[in-house]
Amino acid sequence: MKDMEEELNDKMSFLGEFETAFKEEIHTDILVKPGNNGPPIPAHRALLAAKSEIFKNMLDSDDCKEAPNEAITLPELNHDELESLLKFLYSGSLPIEKVEKHVYSLSVAADKYEIHFLQKFCDRQMLNSLSSSNALDILEISDVCSNLTLKDTALNFIVRNMEDIVFSSKFESFALKNPHLSVQITRASLMDIKNRRNAI
């Protein structure tokens, strides 16, 4: 058991050298730009291409290969969100405060760029933190990402906690922004009432 732990620690330390290369900008060969005109972040083409087929296609484009344009832009992320995304790609994890702050934007980015491990990571974080205060946000993100499992879980939670959520301060703005989701909540609630009546 001790030998296995030592081997795991050695492996984690070995893989951690990728993160060091990112932090210290060792032989970086591409700039990744956020969408809010923030400063670009140096990264490594090979790692980005290995983590995402979408990134690979972007990096293989003729525009990206030309010297003045050795950069890609991720327009949906601000600088802090982009930095968190890249840190995750290099290390496979994030500090909890970064996860809590950026889980929604990272989930959308993971879906768009087909970073499956990050998507699963974000899903776990959202499911573990699901509450009356964030259920509407999680429902909205699950809809954007077409994540049916997450969406069903959030929708069922909302139905079970209708009074707390529907009469909350954020529900009105949510309903105006997402009328189709409001309809789905109403239908799910009515179906739940019907099922409970039939069970009596």
Automatic annotation (TrEMBL):
It comes from the Eukaryota. Pathway: Protein modification; protein ubiquitination. InterPro entries: At1g01640-like (IPR044784), BTB/POZ_dom (IPR000210), SKP1/BTB/POZ_sf (IPR011333). CDD domains: BACK, BTB_POZ_ZBTB_KLHL-like. Residues 28-98 form the BTB domain. It comes from Chenopodium quinoa (Quinoa). May act as a substrate-specific adapter of an E3 ubiquitin-protein ligase complex (CUL3-RBX1-BTB) which mediates the ubiquitination and subsequent proteasomal degradation of target proteins. This is BTB domain-containing protein. It holds the Pfam family BTB.
